[in-house]
UniProtKB/TrEMBL annotation:
HTH marR-type domain mapped to chain residues: 1-150
Lineage: Bacteria, Pseudomonadati, Bacteroidota, Saprospiria, Saprospirales
InterPro entries the record matches: HTH_MarR-typ (IPR000835), MarR/SlyA-like (IPR039422), WH-like_DNA-bd_sf (IPR036388), WH_DNA-bd_sf (IPR036390)
Protein name according to UniProt: MarR family transcriptional regulator
GO biological process: one example: response to stress
SMART domains: HTH_MARR
Organism of derivation: Flavilitoribacter nigricans (strain ATCC 23147 / DSM 23189 / NBRC 102662 / NCIMB 1420 / SS-2)
Classification via PROSITE patterns: HTH_MARR_2
Domain of life of the organism encoding this protein: Bacteria
Gene Ontology terms, MF aspect: DNA-binding transcription factor activity
Gene3D superfamilies: Winged helix-like DNA-binding domain superfamily/Winged helix DNA-binding domain
Amino acid sequence: MKIEEAIQQKKFRDEYHKAHINVLFTASWIHQQSLKALKPFNISWQQFNILRILRGMYPEPASVKSLTERMIDKMSNASRLVEKLKQKGLVERRSCKFDRRQVDVVITDQGLELLSQASAAMEDQMDLSKSQLSEEQAAQLNDLLDAMRY
């Protein structure tokens, strides 16, 4: 569906304005699809992102600062997210051996299992894009989005 139809707006100031609105609208749509996929696992998109980062570093720990630097949503409070994941038994917080002021975060076996299941649900959700875009189109979109940011 064209953006004009989706938001019922016939005119845009120019193609740049239309592209801006289209990116925002599409990002919101993707976010909603992700929320639906993650709902059965009782985790947010930001918590899923932290678990993925920790899985990538496993068995090495991560500092809250390094999690913040690597997160997709830079506005999220990593400390708060880690605490919620800890309460769910998905991560552990430990004192850093080298710096007592730093806290190390490690994903638990329970966190790895939940992440495996949630990742499968997210892959199913992302597979919908494969039916809409060819791999060449996806590569072109990636190039355009990278160019837009820098």
